[in-house]
Each structure stands twice: as structure tokens, then as C-alpha cells.
User: Fold these one by one.
Assistant:
Number 1:
Amino acid sequence: MFTNKKSLLALSVVSAIALSGCFSDKKGAETPPPVEPPPAVIVPPAAPVALAPVANVNVIDAESTDLVAANISFFENGTASTNIVDIDGNVTATIESVDGSFTFQLKSGASVSEITAIVTADTYITKSYVIELEDLSEGNLDVQLKLISKETAGVATAEVTGTVAGGATPGEITANVADGQAAANVTVAAGTILQDADGNAISGNSISLEVVTADTSTSAGTAITPEGLNAAESATTLSPVSVVSVVMVDNNGVKIKNFSQPITIEMALPAAKGFTTGDELALLSQNEDTGVWTTESQKLVVGDLVAANNYYNTSFAIDHLTTFAGVKESATCTVPVRILTTGDAMPADGLYVDVSSDGVNFSKKLKANNPIFVKLNKLSKRGIAVDTKANLVITDSSDTVWFETAEEVNLCGDINATLAGPAVVNETLSLVAQCSNDTSLTVAASGALVKYSLTNKSKKVAKDQGEGTYALRNLLEGSTYNVTVKYKGSLASLGTKAYTITADGTDETQTESIVCDTATGSTGSTGGS
């Protein structure tokens, strides 16, 4: 029996040793391979969304049509606008344009049919313009604002200085300007307290007084008159027959807007306007800081004839300063102004029409598909009476003349114009963003603001055709154009780029390099090619 027990024990040990092999801690072929990280994938950005319509504004010299660097302030009913935004969406009531060209949009949800823009520039006469915005919802809006140089024929300016003590004038201050029928005189009596816009006496010890006037028997008078003199849909229309701007500033930069007693202002009234000694005209004033016109209780009184220069001297007494206009009242035109064109086809984006005479002065775009130049409800606003006549010059943004009248024509009704344009070509500009970390990946640079122009001339906004392509229209064949591109949305990091092209009818492509994002995984890109 003992022998058998040992045998059983030996068998148990052998079995245990054999079974222990099944639970070995050795790592061999059964261990799974390590997990490899997913490959890196270059992901180009999504294509930017299309840019909403913009108002494209160019401030130009009225004679040379070159761009003019200017400061622009926007107002609505005399209050700084809160509805104007730049193309980055920032609300702004002022723009400093270093080259005279700028764009803006309306704030989302804003309902604004017009805006007043007050434009100032060195050596030019400050003027306010009424920009109609009703067509902005249909696409880009082109506007030219023509500034008048102080050296323009028919315009006369004078600037004098004076001393101030305790906010008052120790002696009489006078400023006189006379150049033919452009004549004006301002007299501030001794002892007059000079006040700011709030009625406070100024603290400066000296002042400068500038007087600007123009010959209203020519288009110079209407050219310097701020827009907005007339209301829309009025049965009567006002036209300026005497105009003067008077600005007084102390040595601290404070504008004198009010006086403790009336000052005397005289203006020339050309005899050809049809008035005579003893007549009284309505007098309106415009606040040059807000663009608002006001009818004064005082009248402009017609005095003696200055026979040597064939004008009547007119005068009024007033206790505040601004721009003043004596006006003539006429019945408003009752039919729309239409320009019926023949000859060369009008460019798809229209042409500018410059209207000027001693009764009216403005510039406006004529659409290619609509002969109506001034709508029925805008006739009085534009100052168009039943008997208004004017010269018309039709140009493109490069200042090439397509048509001009040989003499003044009636504005009320239809005007025939035979267009004769220059040799032009059209091109397509394709904008592409390319990943610098994988040059096989690109994205169409849609949604950019693309502007193009001849040197120093009005800039046009290129029409976005989608997929990063932009139409450069009506290029003067053989000319060199400057193109600027402000990239937007996902490509905003590219900033603004400048290019030059030659107008030869050959489509253009510009590629810019960007560093694209890197992602992990095996999926493809979301925005490139």
C-alpha cells in the first residue's frame, strides 16, 4: 500500500507541473501589436461666404476727377449715424479715407433710405451730400462725391484774424471777399460775445474768420451749396441765388456758433436772377456740422445794384454762424427725368451722369437697364423744377466721356444721348488660397472685396461671380489697372493685397499662400480641392 501512495503522489506532481505551463507569464506571439496614431491630414479652410452689397464711394476733384483724400462723417436727421458699418461689421460714423475711396454697408436690420455725408479735405470747400441707399439692397451702389477746390473759377474765399478779450471782440471784425459776382462781407460789431454751440463764451484770445462764396450766375454757386436744400415730394423746388459759408474758430480750435448780438452778412445777388431793390427772399441756413437745413425767420433783403459787376447787394442780420442761402422758389417738375440712350451699348454697371448749371448740381449713376435717371418722388429733392436746365456729361469711372450736351438742356422730361465709348475689354480675376503645408490643396477665395482702377481715378468694386472669380469690366484696352483685394472670412489672415494688371482681355489668376490647419484621422478636407 505504501508503494501505491508514492506512485499517486508522483503522478500528482507531474500533472501540476504540466498544468503550470498553461499559465506562463511569458509574452510571445499572442501579444497584440501596438496601436499606430492616425496620419496627419492637412485641412484647407472652408470658402468664405459672399460679401453683402456695399456702397462704393469715391471722393474726387470736380475738375480733374482725381481721387482726393478726405474725412467723411455720416448723419441721419442731424444725428451721428449708428447704422453705417465697415465691411468687417464695425459700426462707424466717421471714415478717414487716405486715398478718397471707401466702402460701407448698412448694419443688419437697419432700414435707412438715405444718409448725409459731410466731406472735408485740405484746400477744398467742405460740403455735405445726400447719398440715396434705396438701391443698395439690389447690389453694389456706386457714388461719386465731387469736391470743389477753393481755387475754382467763380469761387471766392477770404480769411482774416482778430483778437478776443474775455470772450468778446474789443473792436469790429470784418471779412470781405469780392471777385466779380462772387462777393460777400461779414461784420461783427465791437463788444460782441463770441459763443460756442452751447452758448458759452469762448476762452480763446484770438479767432480766424473764413468766408466762402461763389458766383451764382454760374454753376459755381450750386457746386458749393450743400445738398439737402430741398425736401422730397414737394410741389415747389428751391434753388440758391445767393450763397455764403462763414466759419469762425478760436485759437483753441473751438467753433464760434453763436453771438450775443446779431452780426451783419452781405451777399451778391446777380441781376440776371430777376430780383430788384426792395425784394425779400427766403433765407435758409445749413449747420455744416450736422448737414441739417433750417428756414430762418429773417429775410434776405435786396439792396442797391452794384452796376460795375451787375449784381445786387443783399443783407441780413443773424446771431449764429453756418452756411446761408437766399433762394428762388419754382414749381417742381412733374415727370421723371429719363435719359434715352442710343449708340454704343451702355456698360452693365452703368455710367455716371454729371448735372450742372446755376440752378442744379449733382452726380448720379445711370443704370444700364433703366432709362429713369431721377424718379418722380425724387425730383424736388434733386432741385429739378419745370424750367430747370443744365449741362450733362456722361462718363465712366475712368473719366472717359461717353456723351456731353453742347448746351444746357431741359431736365424735366426725356433727354436723348448718343453714347460713344472707348475700346474696352473684360477680364475675370480668379483668386486662390493655397496651403503652404500641402500645395496640392487650394480653396477659392470667395467673399473678398475686390476694387480696381486707373491710377488716381475712381475705384470700382468687381462683381463677385462665385467660386473665387471676379468680373473686371470695361477696362480701357492696353491700360494698367491697380487691383486691391481685401480677403474676408476664413481667409482674413491674408489681409489686403495689391496687384497690377494690363487690360488685354486675358483672364487673371492670383494665388496666395496660407498655413492650413492640421487634423488627425483618415477623412478628407472640408473646403479645398
Number 2:
Amino acid sequence: MMKRQTMIIVLLAWFLSCFNTADAQADNNYIILDGTYTFASGDDPAWTSLLFDDSKWRSIIVPGSWQSQGIKPAKGLGWYRIRFVAPPRLESNNVAVLLGRIGDADEVFLNGLKIGKGGIIGSRYVEATKIERLYIIPPHLMRYGQSNLLVVRVMNTYLNGGFFDNNILLGDYNSLMIEKLNRERGSIIIEFCFFSCFVIFFIACMFFYFRGLKEKEYIYFWIFITFYSSLFILGSITFYNTGAKSPLIQQIINTLSTILPAGLILLLMSVYQEKLHLLTKIMIAGFLIVAVANNVFYDYTVRKYLYAAWKGLFIATALFLIIFAVKAYLRKAHESGPILLGITGLVLGFILESIGGVDLLQFTGFFLWDYSAGFFMFCIMYSLAARFNRIKNQLVSASVKILDAHEDERKRLSRELHDGIGQSLLSMKLKFKMLADTFGKNKPVDRESFNELIEGISNTIEEVRSISSDLRPSFLENLSLTDALNWHARKAMDKSGIEFSIKSEDKIEISTRLKDNIYRVYQEALSNIIRHSEASRVDITLRMRGKSLVLEIRDNGKGFDPLLSEKHGAGLGLYTMRERIELLGGLFRIKSSDKIGTTMYIEVPSE
């Protein structure tokens, strides 16, 4: 026994002195092939040959990525070669080699013949980055007790290339299969955790939809989940093991990855209820152009530049969204805190991975992008759930307020009718009775009495018109919106003494329904200014912005806290104004402070 072990050691030492050799540590069922390999970048089928001289190739440590060892292979292709001795004790086994995970596709040759591949190498490549490579070796290929040549051709498409896992093993297939399953078990468990989260998010979106919440933000979140879950599932170990991952599927993965930030823009803009302006449209168009180009051009250099363009676009998008989210948080927009947290996590994950080169896949089996995207979706889901709960509570509160408002309106009308019209009619009744008594006594009637009655009737008619106009201004059907706003501003100025200035475009053509709603909001806004603002001046701007109508009302009053007002249940007028505008598919914003007064910004589609 001792002689046999001595012979093996001598043989190994001899081969180590002649070839680049792995650290072949013996075990009952396998040997370990970690160590120093020869390596060359580029691509040449002749490198598989046993006769090829690789003495001028550089050395590379396995396992280890190319990037960590300062290697930048031409067109993302590199070849590994190593010579090893297979111990005779393995001859009775069904022999295989377990290479672990390789970034990103590979072909493996033993003694000049191909024994397997992971993914597909070429312009129509298929990635297999997360897959543990296990290849069966045909019995006639292995030379037991002699030198064997293992050659691995590798293509790197994203982040790091090379071998990721310790312990490259050569040995019994059954033992190595158990080792492969043990290595993949943790990744598969995490995959199913992600799958479960996707299902929960889908169910939540369906719940919101069937409960009547069909706003854009919920639809865009559903679209974003659909895109990302499809991307995750198609790139998963589970899907790869079905054998269905083809170049077409890889192209779909690449396309979804490219346009995913565009979906992110649409989602965040809808959550913040913002219109897409020129910059966001340019960024979305940029992602779509890169996606189309990726499906047209397969050259490695062209794709390298396209990826650089995509990274530039994403950095610009990330900066824009973070600035946007910070502004929303500073103005205390609803649910802005968790949204800002989610965006920050998402952007940080991307920057660390794509720019900083942090590759968690080598250690956890998943990209940092996967974790940051999952964190982002949890934050958005929390925000949408919080919004649903807030809207539900607001609806309950609004129902109570509306009932109270109806009662208050009845009391107001009763008071105006009693104190105004009622008193006027009573006064006229007494005067008519006095005239009747005078006629009955055949006394002359003072002509002034008739003038007083006519004046009283005229005043009463004017009061009726005023009340009727407040309830439903019929002149809106005949006047333009600009004229109606000017008329009400003059009326408010006479009543309050506040100076009103209106700037409006000459031709604004909108529907009667939109005109009625904008006038109501304007009427309520001016009423609030008169009652609460203590302002001396109000500037009003009415203009068209593309196909949208914009109304801006700015005062120099004492200001207030809109969120605090809504939180404490005050201000039905503020709530109804917001509700009117949102039902029209528009934007309603209020900015207020004790230093600059209050600015109300309204933007609604004109069609």
C-alpha cells in the first residue's frame, strides 16, 4: 500500500515538473483540479489539440474571475488548458467533471474531444451563469494513470468571466451529482422565494384592481412586475434546467433588461402623478432604441458600445429619479419616504454592480441587481398598499364631510333665504299692506312708495340671481372660461378688497364639462383665499400646455400646511378640489409657506 502511494506521489511530482498542473488532492471519489491553468484570450479551435504548445500562454488561478486577475480577453473569449493525471482508482467509476459556475457560457474538451457545454457561445449566445457545470466523461477518453488534457472555452457576456466556485472536481458521477445539487439547493430556495413574492405582488395588484383602484400607478406596477418576473424566471436555474433556454429566450432576456428602466420611469412618474416631459420621453426613447439595436447588431464591439450607451442612459435616469424622489419627499408628498428608499436601493445596487464591479453572483448565486430590484418592489408595494389604505380612509372621511357639507349648505341657503330674500319679501309685504290701507281710506298715495317697492323687488331679484349663480352659473355656457374667471375675480375683489391679476391666453377651447369643473375649483380656491389667507394680492395664470390646460393661482398670504390640513380632517374644499381634478385625469399640487404664500397648480387634459 505504501509503495502504491509513493508511486502516485512520484508520478504527480514528475508531471508537475513537466506541465501546469492542478492541486490534485485525493479523495475516495474524486480529485480536486483547482490551481494554476494556462490561459489565452481570443478564439482558435486548434487550441483543443493535445499537440498544441501552450508554453507561451499566461498563467491564471482557478477559481477566480478574469477581471480580478487583470485579464481583458478579446471579444469576451478565453481558453483554459490544464494537464492532470487521473488516478487508476477512478477507473471503475462512471467518471465526470464538476466545474462549478462559469461566467457566462462554456465548451469543455477532454483530450481533444468535446464532452459538454453550458449555454451557447457565439453571436447568438445563451448565458448559463448560475448553472453548476457537471459533464460526464466517456470511458474511452480518460487515460488513467497518464496525462490528460482538459480544455475549457469560455465566453463572458456580463460582469465577470471565469470560474467562480472552489473545488473543481473530477470523480464519480453520482457523488458529483449530489455535490452539484447541494451547491444549487440554496440558490433554488432563494429563487422560489422570489417566485412567491412575484405571486403575492400579482395577487395584490389584482386585489387593488377589483376593489376599484384602476389608477395608472397600479397598472404600471403590474407591468413592471410582469417584466421583471419574466426576466428573473427566464434567467433562473429552474428554467434553464427545463432545456427551454434558447438564443431566442436569451434575446428576450436582453430586451427586457434593456427596456426595464423605461418601465421604471413610467411607474415612478405615475406614482407621483407627473406628466411625461421632454427629458423623460428622450430617456424612454433611448432605451427603446438600444433594445432594437441589440436585436439587429450581433457584433461584439457594437454590443459593447450599446451596453456603454445603456449604462449612460441608466445613470441619467437614476439621477433624475433620485432628484425627483428627494423633491417629492421634501414637499412631503404622500408615501414619498418608502419610494425614495426603494429608488435609492435600486440605484445603489446598479451602480455597485455595473460600475463598481461588485458581483454577488460569485458568492450568493444571484446578482446584486436581483436583490436591489426585489427591495425596490417591496418598497413600492408597501407604498401602494399605504396609498390604498389612505384613500379608503379618505373616502370614509369624505362621506361624512359630504353629508355635513350638504347639511351646512342647506343651513346656508335657509339662512340666506330667511335673512335676505325672506326679510325683503316681508318688508315689501308690509309696504303693500300700508298702500292697501291708504287706498281703502281714499287717501292719496305717495309716489315714492312705489319707487321703494320697485327698488325692493329689484334687489330681491338680484339676490335670487346671486344665489342661483352660486349654485349653477348659467352664464358659463355663453362665456369663455377666461371671461368667467375675470367676472368672478372682479366680484371677489369688490367683496374682499384683494387685488386680483389674471393673465390668460386669448383662445382656450375646452368642453363645457371641463369648463364647469375648472370654474368650481377656481371659485373654491378664491373663496379659501378670501377667508383664510390674509393676502393682499392674487396672481392667476390660465394657459395651454400642449394638449393640457394649466391654471395657476398664487397669493402672498400667510400660507398653510396642506398635508397637516388633510391629516387633521380639515378642509373639505381642498379635498373636493383635488378630487375633481384627479377625476379629470389631471394634476393638483399645492405649495405653501409663511414666506411665499400659497401656489396652487392645476393641469388637466383638454380633450
Number 3:
Amino acid sequence: MADIKPLAVDQVYRRCPEDCLDFETTETLEPLGDPVGQERVLQAMRFGTGIRNHGFNLFVLGPRGVDRHALVRRFLEQRAADENVPPDLCYVYNFSEPDAPRAIRLSAGDGRRLRRDMDGFIEELRTGVAAVFESEEYQSRMQDLQEGFEQRQQKGLSAIGEEANESGIALISRPGGFTLAPMRDGEVLEPDEYEKLPDDERKKIEDKVAELQKKLQQEIQRIPALRKELRNRLRELNEEMILFALGGPVRELKDHWSHEPDVTSYLDAAREHVVENAEALRGRRGSGPPDELLERFRVNLLVDNAEAEGAPIIYEDLPTHHHLVGWIEHQMRNGALYTDVSMIRPGSMHKANGGYLILDARRVLSHPMAWESLKRVLFSGNVRIESLERLYGLVSTSSLQPENIPVSVKVVLVGERLLYYLLAHYDPDFLELFKVEADFADDIERNDDNHTLYARMLASLARQSNTPPLDRSAVAGMVEHASRLADDQRKLTADDRVLRDVLTEAGYWAGEANSEVITREHVQRAIDERNERAGRLRQASLEQIDRGTVMVSTSGEAVAQLNGLSVIQLGDFRFGRPSRITATARPGRGQVVDIEREVKLGGPIHSKGVLILSRFIASRYAPDNELSLSGSVVFEQSYGGIEGDSASLAETCALLSAISGVPLRQSLAVTGSVNQHGQVQAVGGISEKVEGFFDVCRQAGELDGHGVIVPAANVEHLMVKPAVREAVSEDRFRIYPAETVNDALDLLTGMTAGELDAEGHYPDGSFNRRVADRLREFARIARKFREERDKGQEGDGAEA
């Protein structure tokens, strides 16, 4: 029998020596700059932000608990501070294509100045135009034009009237036009008097009237042309007066913006638009320019970098299509939707131009078309503002189509590893656009150097959360808890979210104790309180076992029955729970039935574990013959799904006990997986599993030689709670490391498992000899059964 000694207390828990911490409290420590143990991700981020080639955007991936967003933002802030401030982005009215607003890029701060200058220009239009049209010069010149028109119009009519008078014909003006009538002695002849005139005289009058009528018609036809000429002259006068009033301000603006060709061309277009709309600018009855017309000269400062220092860093917490690429607002006016250039709103791609845009991958993927819009911008390098309704033809109403704006943005997606791998597998564009993978480490090495760095990190977390400083004992306690969270004595978790929560709660308990510093006792109480708050189901499970509702034996011996260990995860809280595993064995054809699998409660990994243990038994006990066995294993009183292979060692021992008839100690629980060669492999949640069986035994009042058999490879993963450490130190609870199935059988049966000798036999009295003998008996019984069955079939054939 192998001499397997239980683990010592320093093997089940690695303490952090306080003498390696050269400070009294964390108040004297400098805050930590870069995160501990994340050199790989920092190097990836340096590369990703340094390279400017197309497609080298970053995807920062890692576990949920790591505060990836804060680290990314802190890194980018340090880098962006030394980079150039990007230009301002503006939209202005397009005077040649009103539905396509024009984009203008200006140096940082110039956007405000242009907006201010154009606001001043609008005020000049509002006040200067009214003053010009109310001036005496304008009124005098307009009156001269109108009088000249009247004179030219009357001159032609007067000439016709004089000619008519000389011919004895009167030119009479009526509301409906002009009439020609014969007259004598200055009086118009009545119709009956006219009829009394001789025929030749009447003919002479009629011919003259016809001639005058023709001339009158020609003169009347000249009146619209004269009026059009008057309108043109008045328009030229208006334009001249407006240019006179605004020529100086426009020239000043062009001189001021001579270094910006886009602005000078815009000012030229604005001046032409003013001239073309001089009449409209005058307004009705001299009321002044209408507001709708003045708003055309308003500058929409889309992105203002006047006060920026370095490159922008934008975090978009609601990455919808509109929030990424911008949108166009509308207002209801007179029952219809109205918009203009001032209602164009920027997206985060505009705001991050020349800098960095941080997005949460899950949120981008959860909003309709946001992911496709992001990819379209990254592929084209241009931002196109367009609504989803218009983009997909869901509406046909006309709207603005702003000019596309070229952008240069380094996008940093932050997400879980699963999202990264799914996108890389299913989206062919993903790896073309996100070529830099920055992967956070789940945990970091635990050594003296990192103890100091971890202490500085805790000091930083304490300052950020406004908690009291930690003394050395508290730092040691937090380091030890970090190892437990990492499930490894040689590692520390990188999950700063949980550490921050524990630290905040420890600060609360320090305050309750009127302590100015956080001590180990406050840290431990915070941990215990967290477990207690989340422990309702754990307590209910213990109560069911204590009352016998769930059957778990912790004393005596039993054949084909053993306590297996599993872990239940509920949110951030997990706990271990023992479960009874039973097995049956009878002669058969080498089949081990996994009852969980048969009823579809067992997962694929658990089923794999059962198949492996069945092959292990076959290869060990029947290497050259057919295995005659029909066995089964099951988790008793299990009504939910079971996954994982951590129970395969316990299932193997239970099945071998069923075959041999040798009872197993119920005071020991077992965890570990088995390979086909009988080696015990490491499993997860080892500390919680040990604690789960410990709690059951302590509740039953039985802590006298009880214990757990764990894989030897899991020893350095143990970080058990104080109660278990105390019981281990007093030798009331034992934790045994097992490297092989034989080690576990030695402990469970009290017998020597036994090894094969040179002739291929196990030693007499060994456990394995009992199993081998029993399987040979199974084979004999099965062979006899087949022979009798075959004889019976032959007899039936002879009778036939």
C-alpha cells in the first residue's frame, strides 16, 4: 500500500509574508501606472496605435472582470496628449446645390472664428440691408427710375394724342384701355351726328382712326417691355446698393480667410447668392430679410476642437448607426417636416477624427446596422450621414445629402474573447479591419516583485474608491484572496473589479470599527460577508443534506457508493457540493452505461469521461480478452444537467468497488479526472470542492479523519478558507494528493491496489486481484450462458 501523506497546512494555502512588504500603509505608495503583468497587451496597444496603415485597428479582448475600458482609456490619454489636434469640421449651405450641404475642414479653432464671422455677416445683412433700402439715395434713385418710366410711357401716348387732335380725333383714356373717337370743335361727336357726316368724310375719319389705332397698339405693346426694363433697373439698383453696403465686409472676410481656399470660394458663392436674392433680402414692403434666407449663411460647426489638447479620445456608450455616423434632425413646420444645414448632427466618427474611438463590441453588435455602418466607414475612410430609413428605401421623402467627410480614426473595440473568435470566424471583413489583437492576461505571476506592484495597484484602487489606506496585513490578505480568485497559489487574478469591490467593502467595515486603516480582519470580514450574502442556495443545499433529503454519507463504508464533488456557479459566487455516485456491475459485453447521458442530462465532456474510464478498465483488467462487464454509473438525486469530467475518478472507484465487492470509505470524498492509463488529472474549482465536503462533515459533527482525495496536480491550486486550514493543521480534516487511480483505491479501501508482476498477475490479496478475479468470474458466467443458449438453439433446430 502506497504511503500517501495528507497535505500540510502550508500546502493547502500559500500565505503572503508581511515582511516582504516594505511599507506600513499603502498611503505612502506611489500609484501604479501600467497594470501589473499586462506587458503583452500594452505592447500590442503601442503597436496598434503607432501603425497608421489601413485596417490596423485594435480589438482589446479579455475576461469581463478586468477593467479593460479604464486601462485602454488611460493608455490612449497618455499617447494622445503628444499628438496633433485634428481640424475643425463644418457644414455650410451649398448655394449651387441646396440639398447637398458642403463640408469644410479648418484648423483647430478656425471653425469658431468662421462661425462668428458669418454670424456677423448675417447681422450685416439683417441691419445693413434695411438701412440701405431706407436711405435717401436709394429712395431718390428709385423715384428717378420710376419717373423716367412714366415719362417714357406718357411720351408715346402724348404723341399719338397730338396727332389725333390734329386729325379731329380724340384719344380717350378709360379703365379698360384707350378709345379713339371723332370730334368737332373740341367735342366728341355723338353716334347719330357721326352718321350724318358725308361718306367720304366718314371714310377719311375711319382710315385715320385705324392708323392711330395701329400706332396706339404698338405703343401699348411697348409698356410691358418698359416695365421689365424698369424691374431690371430696379434690381440692378438693389444689387448695386447691397454690394455697396456689403462689399466692404465681404472683402474683409476674404482677406481674413485668404489662407483657406475653401472658405474664400464659399464667401464668393455667398456674395453671389446675396446679389441674386437682393429682392428677397429687401423683404416685403421693406420689412428686411426673412429669417429662412438669413439661415442659409449660418455655419454649422460640426466638430469644435478649439479647446482640445492632443488627439481626441471618444467613448461611445450607445453605438447606434446615428450615433456613429451622425444624423439630420427635422422640425414640424406648417404640417410638414423641415430641415436645413444647421440641423446636421455629428456622430462619434466625426468627433474622433484624427484620434481614437473606443467602442464596446457587444453593444455595437446589438444595435441594428451599427456594425455594418462602422465597417463601411473604416473601408471607405469617409463618413456619410444618412438615415437608416433612407439608406434602405423605407421612406421616399426628400432630405439633405451632406457631402461625405474624410476621416482618419483609430477604432478600439473592447470585448470578450468569444466575440473576437466568433467575428473572426463568421465575418470575412473583421480581420481585414481589426488586425491588432490585444489580449489581456487572466492572471499574473505571484512573486515578491509583483507583491509590491500589486500593493501599489491596491493603493491606486483605494484612492479611486475613497477608501482608507491598507496596512501590510490587509495587503497580504488581498494578495492571498487574489490567488484564490486565480485558483492558483502561483498566480494573482487580474480581475480588478472584484478586488475593488472587496476593497470598498473592507473600507466600510474599517469605518464601522472606527479604524483609520484597513486591516486583514476587515478584508476577511468583507470576503465572509460577500459569501454570506450570496450563500442562500449553498445553505439550502447543506440543510437538505443535514435533514437526509439529499443522501450523502460521511461515515462507515459502502460498496459501489462514493462521494463525488461538483461546483455550482451562480453569478460571481460558486460553491462546492458533494453528490452520491453509485455504480452497478454484472456480466455483460464490456459496456458501461452512463445513465446521465442516456436521459440527456450529461454533457459531452462528462460522457467522454465515462467512455475513458470504461476503456481504462478494459485495458487494465482484460488487455488480451473481451471484457465481460455490464456496468452503470450515475449521480444520485441529480435532476439537472451534469457537465465536466472531474467526477471520472470517483466514478471509476465506485465501478471497481461494484465489480470487486470491496467497500469504500464514506469519510472521504473524491474529485479528479482519469485518463486511459489510470493517471489522475487536474480539475477546476478545487478549493470550493474541498470546502463543500468540509462543510457537510462539520455540519454532521464529524471531523475526525475525514477528508478529500484531490489530484496531485491540483495541490498548487488549493487556497482553502480559514476553517479548513485550522482543521488541517489540527489533523481533523485531511486532503490527500493522488497521482493514479491506485493511489485513490489505496486510500478508499485500506487495501493495497497492487501492480502487475512479470507474469501479468496482480498480487494475492490486492484490490486489483479482487477485480481481476471477479471479471474472470463474469467471463466464465457469460461464457456458460452463451453455451447454454447456443445448445438450446441447436435443440430447437433439430426438432424442427
